[in-house]
């Protein structure tokens, strides 16, 4: 009877032993954290591994933008003829430089003659009405005429005065000085003068063409106050301030730098999440013309940040990481948000205060970690 009991105890003992062995094997198969990597002393020495703490200080940040040269409305002028007419002569071509007050075209039309004739006729009538009014006032003082006759003379004089003033303003629209007009100076042509200093950007007519008051004959640009209109993302708007310095350059000559300053930040965000920043050129260059595309670098004020050497940050699948030491020669890959890189230092936003970070050999750790993960 004892023999069977012995066999039963032995079987139970063997069963626990097998179970214990099986559990030990299962525990051995539990993988380590997929973001952890360990090195042997030889491996750490081979990759010249070094660790260090994050540093704190200021770093210059630069925002790279694109845009084009623009002209403010007050420097862009459309020239038209308020009363219409035929273009008689002009020497203007796109790109021609003009000065304020310079004759840029000569127009002619029969209506110009008629307006001058009407003005002179009204002036003659007004001269007679003025004398007649004076005579009626004298007569009225002696009661030699009625008040009604005097009132009619006054009304006639005032009506003619209004007509004369209206014709004077109309003549101003076609650049004729009514005060200098007389019977011997009636002209069928008028001069068109440039209202600004600058150059001609467009010529929309040809000799002999009739233009209506709504037609634009020339477009003129004063380039002395051209602006750089830059496109900026909504997320960066809060970092832009009036007066900030912007360095601009073209793709054709990137080595030539133009200094500008922010003069206006738009508060309107478009459908694409973009806004506009307007910059003023410190010095005018004739090579800069409206419509030209330019690149720009906007200098932020010095930002207080924590930063690491540039080699401490590695990228994998469009994300940025650093390796934080969690034990002797054992490291955890930690995702970070990076900022501007300047003079070999990269700004980061993750809080790594008091931690040791791999500052040399981070790329080797990334390769070992991902190669190990692939093998598993």
From TrEMBL:
The CzcB-like barrel-sandwich hybrid domain, residue ranges = 77-220
Coiled-coil annotated residue ranges, if any? 143-170
| Signal peptide segment | 1-22
Record-level GO cellular component terms: cell envelope; membrane
Question: So where does this one cross the membrane?
Answer: none
Q: Which domain of life is it from?
A: Bacteria
Q: What protein name applies here?
A: Efflux RND transporter periplasmic adaptor subunit
A biological process (GO) annotation for this entry? plasma membrane copper ion transport
What family, per the record?
Answer: Belongs to the membrane fusion protein (MFP) (TC 8.A.1) family.
Q: What NCBIfam families does the record tag this protein with?
A: RND_mfp
Origin species, per record, is Pedobacter chitinilyticus
Q: Which UniProt keywords apply?
A: Coiled coil, Signal, Transport
Entry annotated with the keyword Signal = yes
Q: Name one GO molecular function term.
A: transmembrane transporter activity
Q: Which Gene3D superfamilies match?
A: 2.40.30.170, 2.40.420.20, Helix hairpin bin
